[in-house]
Amino acid sequence: MSEDTDDNIDRELFRNIEKLRQLRIEHRDLDQIIDRLAMDLRSDEVEVRRLKKRKLMLKDQIQRLLSESIPDLNA
Fold first, then answer.
1. Strand (E) positions, the chain?
2. What is the mean pLDDT of residues 10-23?
3. Domain range for 60
């Protein structure tokens, strides 16, 4: 493998790690917001549902990034 290829792989790995970190932070933040809204009797149920959908979407993105980072054992 050439040095350029190694650099590209390293940059891509760093980008994926950073993206994963950002997704996890957003997921955690949404979790805290949803918990707070659940305690507030005046909270907007539609807003809570929207936040829960966003949280699930983030979870799917996190899982996809993690599965892409695991090498294919059949390769």
1. none
2. 90
3. 3-64
